[in-house]
Amino acid sequence: MRRLLDLALVAGFLVIIGLPLSANLVGRDGGDQEAENRDLARFPRFEWSWDAVKAWPTGLDSWFQDHFGFRSTLVRWYGQSRYYGLHVSPSSNVVRGKAGWLYYAADGGLDDYTNANPLPPGEIENWRQTVLRARDWCRAHGVAYVFTIAPDKAMIYPEYYDDHVRQLSTVSRADQLFTATLDTGVVIDVRQAVIAGKSHDRLYHLTDTHWNSRGAFLAYQQIIDAVHRQLPAVPPAHARSEFNPTSRLIDGLDLAGMMGLKRVMHEEDLQLLPKKGRGYVVVEPRGAYATAGEGRIVTEIPGSPLPRAIIFRDSFASWLAPLLSEHFSRAVYLWQNNFDADEVLKEHADVVIEEIVGRHLYNFIPSPELIPDP
Question: Is the pTM of this model over 0.90?
């Protein structure tokens, strides 16, 4: 009897460890790239070269780790057990906040909340000189220039952050940079407008690190009005009354995906849609959306005499793009933080907008020496 029990245990063990491979052999892919919010390893190509032959087993191993049978189910079960069972985040990159709010901990996100490492004086001066040189170069070439910092979610909604995480200072790197540069006349602090608006709307996604279109709208108004003051040919910002507020239920977004819970979590996506429709079209890349995460996106308003713009940006400008694009005959969105004078000249831009999210002040050092003298 004991022998039969041992054989049953061995057989059961072999069946369990063989199930993932068996699932792959019958064509079941256990990976779910959208749910995990990352690029999964691709099946390695076999080529007749010694280096390719040596590398093929490593590539196969990487592919199998991302695609073994039932992987997405196991990832989801693990995430659910941690998040709903133990009430902790299944990912070190995500902070589990209160009332369903999630916050990004990686990429400087946690530092941006705790304010643990203020900008040293040398870096503050570096930022100031970068803004001044960009402003002066643009003025010398007849170009309007605006610089802004997009506030992280925790800056606007600290009340939902994990109570176990303490802020070490009330002064953020964004505070330091604004103090050093607001007198330049080209730096726009959108935070107060966004904070004032949160009593009327939820302005950031619950399961994403970014603001939603309603939060971006408040920042857009500040940015475009600042541009209009420098260049009146750019129309002033649209009023909220020109948009219809809409909402829809969607699956969890990027932070939910990092925890393996993209298809488990849901949230209400609060949007603003223009009553008159969109006037611009995306011309590069063809078929893309202005909100896409492409390195280069170009929008145009056919036949428009409006000025042209270049926007140096990161992901927070994705929801700004549909709004900003209505004010320029051609708008070029470049995913980079450094000011690029050559691109401005090549595009014959009349306006330059620079946007950087607050947490990137922890991992990006500007290069004022790269900006030409006026």
Answer: no
